Amino acid sequence: MPNAIFPNATLHRLRGGDVALGFGVHHLRTAATPMLAKAAGYDWLFIDMEHGAFSVQEATQLCLAALPAGITPIVRVCADALDEGTRALDNGAQGIVVPHIDTPAQARRMAEAFRFPPQGHRSWGGPPYAYGLRAPSADVAQAGINREVLAVAMIETGEAVANADAIAAVDGIDVLLFGTSDLTADLGISGQIGHPKVYAAYESVADICRKHGKVLGMGGVYDEAHARAYIGIGARLVLGGSDHQFLLDAASARAGFLRGLV
Question: Cα 240 to chain center, whole Å?
Fold first, then answer.
């Protein structure tokens, strides 16, 4: 008998208007990683193949460990590595993030790569991990997977902000996720995440997302003041930070406390 599909809990949270918090994974590799993220109160893993030194094998092992843990495995690939995205989806990922989506043509190419026909041209093959290895008929399984995949386009340049309306209009794009750090660099205000130009970009893209029924995402904002402001503007897919920074912050605080006792 076929199994039910693993639900994409993050996608369902977003469809309900809730915030979904991401736990960035850059260094961790063990199967305990999803459990740690879940225990810490996060909703999804941000498995970073763009800047982290992950192989597809390592990334997808984390994806497979995340599925039964109830935390959504989402993989960021490099800008032109859509084939790595489809391999990740074939092997447990429930969402793909593609950086540097600047034009609607790039958005369409991305959306079509990650959906089975008729919405796209993704190839059917490999173990059906989305169904716990026991999938229904191919047509039923493909339609079910199409509904559960989260396709996230990163907005990281002034060009992308200018084209955001056309990008958000593309069927199959679910989230427009700001890469805020890269956006500031492109705008000539590197590191100034609270600059008026950045606020204006968030407000503009938030309005566009509401117009098209898409989700606004926030990445690269880790201070409380600006995170509060951008979530207030409408960001709902929120990257909370990455493993190395979580470890450094907690370990540094603990070391400071203990040394202060002497």
Answer: 11
Q: Which of 12, 69, 8 is nearest to 215 (CA)?
A: 12
Domain residues for the domain of 40 are: 9-259
Is 195 a known active-site residue?
no
Using only C-alpha atoms, the chain has a radius of gyration, in whole angstroms, of: 18
Peptide bond into 118 cis (omega under 30): yes
Q: What is the DSSP string of 6-18?
A: PP-HHHHHHHTT-
pTM, full prediction: 0.96
CATH code: domain of residue 128: 3.20.20.60
> Using one digit for the tens of pLDDT, what is the confidence trace for 131-187?
999 999 999 999 999 999 999 999 999 999 999 999 999 999 999 999 999 999 999
State both tokens at 10: 């993050």
- The one catalytic residue among 26, 27, 51, 100: 51
